[in-house]
């Protein structure tokens, strides 16, 4: 799962990304950097400070609405006034947490937003013989746990969260590696993760839901 932390306090941004090491995290410290990031990439969840150098974070929410983006958004702000919360939520934010906050609470809210956006508010994802527990991050096939790496689990969740849609190799590369994907010479690491994930699931006896789409990418069929 991929996050964007829009926060100008570098120590806080560093603390957040360090605590959320299970996610692929990118950061933006100014209004213009944030606009550039959301113009280029998609995210499972965005943490948005509404007081930014160069502009108001509320305007970023307005840009999201204009672009019809579906990324989850949690406002993180020192502004704790009721009208700020109401304004942010009316503009399309999914949640609001006031500074200072506990990182464990922030992580729980992120999990809730992603679960609601991608998996219909379920903690347990089941497709026939395959199941994923989002809280424990355990994947089982026919009741047997399958040991997946962090990247393999990210890949599986991304594919299942976009089931029946063709996902390009470029989109997979960007989801797995963040904004450094543009600097990579090839998508060989995507092929490697796909190959390893497919082998582990196939060896366990899953129903071959992961399909190659020739010349385009991959699709997870329901």
UniProtKB/TrEMBL annotation:
Pfam families in the cross-refs: Response_reg (PF00072), Trans_reg_C (PF00486)
Domain OmpR/PhoB-type positions: 122-222
Record domain Response regulatory: where: 2-114
4-aspartylphosphate, modified sites: 49
One example of a Gene Ontology biological process annotation: regulation of DNA-templated transcription
UniProt organism field: Chitinophaga barathri
Cellular component aspect of the GO annotation: cytosol; protein-DNA complex
Gene3D superfamilies referenced in this protein's UniProt entry, alphabetically: 3.40.50.2300, Winged helix-like DNA-binding domain superfamily/Winged helix DNA-binding domain
Keywords associated with the record: DNA-binding, Phosphoprotein, Transcription, Transcription regulation, Two-component regulatory system
GO molecular function: phosphorelay response regulator activity; transcription cis-regulatory region binding
Transmembrane segments: none
DNA-binding region: 122-222
Protein name: DNA-binding response regulator
